[in-house]
Design brief:
Shape: globular
Largest sheet: 8 strands, antiparallel
Number of helices: 11
Bound molecules: L-homoserine
Number of domains: 2
CATH topology of the largest domain: Ribosomal Protein S5, domain 2
Strand content: 15-25%
Radius of gyration: 20 Å
CATH architecture of the largest domain: 2-Layer Sandwich
Order of helices and strands: HEEEEEHEHHHEEEHHHHHEEHEE
Distance between the termini: 31 Å
Number of strands: 13
Structural class: alpha+beta
CATH class of the largest domain: Alpha Beta
């Protein structure tokens, strides 16, 4: 198609699309800003955000928000991350001489905000992935991931892919800091249950980053590098004992536990029933525990429900690694 033909396209009729983007555990304790895992409940519920993209019924773009947590979103549409996704995505379309069309975006905001479950990533990934599907995939995977990272950075104040990459691509993703590749899928332990508990208190990622030290000791640096390297090695060799012996956090957890009521109590309780690991999901307040058996996971849910949930919107999910990431539903 020539440039002139592309530019003179009349408005196309496009099929509406609905996409889902799952929650994720950022950091996984052992890889600050560097490791993240998408999570799905074992009962096949969809826990994450959903976006419907369709033709606008006016000449302008439209945005509608519903869902369990929509009341916590900014009222002004310009401040809504989905609206910002649309502006950025449209710029990319224009850069490719693709005609931008007015769309209606409907966000079902089902992920709690400031939760440590990658809530902003769920919205960003669903928004960008949904628009790309609506326009028949004009942007490649790498472009999409870069765009998602930029939008996530606008919200959290710094560029980190440890939620957007697993949320978009699924599985456990290791961020690659240099070179072309942004993220690499790492083999997971498929039999492990990941129990996550959101207590219904708010911890903003921006604030949880501000309280971290600017500098770390040489000892911490060596410990961090050794644990992450040993963990990745163990994942490839499927050596569960080695892997989980290294799921410990020297970078963030020692400083962030002050923001979390009952963290030590819950951690001790979960360890007493045989947790493989317990840690803060992303920047918190959600906490995760990893377990060998479903029976332990159920016991863990009971402990979380009793000892960690602080208010009525709190919940505990028994999950497994979500291998799919963002998808059409
Ligand atoms: N990795 C980031 C942090 C965000 O811990 O601050 C994770 O959600």
């Amino acid at each position: 198609m020539t440039q002139a033909t592309k530019n003179s396209q009349t408005k196309q009729s496009r099929d509406p699309v609905t996409v889902f983007a799952p929650i994720s555990i950022g950091n996984v304790s052992v890889g600050f800003d560097t490791l993240g895992m998408a999570i799905s409940p074992v009962d096949d519920q969809l826990v994450g955000d959903v976006i419907h993209v369709s033709e606008s019924d006016t000449e302008h773009d439209q945005l509608e928000c519903t869902g369990n947590f929509q009341q916590f979103l900014p009222q002004q549409k310009e401040a809504n991350i989905i609206w910002q996704c649309l502006q950025e995505f449209n710029q990319q379309l224009q850069g490719q001489d693709i005609q931008v069309e007015p769309v209606k975006l409907h966000l079902e905001k089902n992920t709690p905000i400031c939760s440590g479950l990658g809530s902003s990533a769920c919205s960003v990934v669903a928004g960008i992935y949904g628009l790309n599907e609506y326009y028949n995939q004009p942007l490649a995977q790498q472009q999409l991931l870069e765009l998602m990272g930029d939008l996530e950075a606008k919200i959290s104040g710094s560029l980190h892919f440890d939620n957007v990459a697993p949320c978009y691509l699924g599985g456990m993703q290791l961020m690659i800091p240099e070179g072309e590749k942004i993220s690499q899928a790492i083999p997971v332990f498929e039999d492990v249950y990941w129990v996550v508990c959101y207590p219904d208190i708010k911890v903003s990622t921006r604030f949880a980053r501000e309280i971290l030290p600017e500098q770390y000791s040489r000892q911490d640096l060596v410990t961090y590098g050794g644990r992450l390297g040993g963990f990745i090695d163990a994942c490839y060799r499927q050596d569960k004992a080695q892997a989980f012996s290294l799921v410990k956090d020297v970078v963030a957890e020692p400083y962030r536990t002050t923001l979390l009521t009952n963290f030590e109590l819950v951690k001790n309780s979960l360890e007493s029933i045989g947790a493989l690991a317990v840690g803060i999901s992303g920047s918190g307040p959600t906490v995760f525990g990893a377990f060998d058996t479903f029976e332990q996971a159920e016991q863990a849910k009971d402990i979380f429900d009793k000892q960690y949930i602080r208010a009525s919107n709190g919940f505990t999910i028994i999950g497994k690694t979500d291998s799919e990431g963002a998808r059409r539903i």
